[in-house]
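G., the chain you wanted modeled:
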Amino acid sequence: MNEDVLLIARALDFAARKHVDQRRKGLAAEPYVNYLAEVARLEAEFDAAWQAGGR
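Predicted structure as C-alpha cells:
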C-alpha cells in the first residue's frame, strides 16, 4: 500500500476515534468525521487538478 494512503487512513482512523460521539447539525445528523473526510477528499482533488495545470 502506498505510504501516503496509509498515512491518510491512519489520520482518518484517529479523527474517527476522537470524534466518535460528535454529529453534524441538521436533519441527517451524520457523524462529524464524515465531514472531515469529505473536506480532505475535496482538497486532494483540488490539489491534483492544480498540479495537473487545471487551475
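The chain has one domain: 3-51.

Shout if anything looks off.
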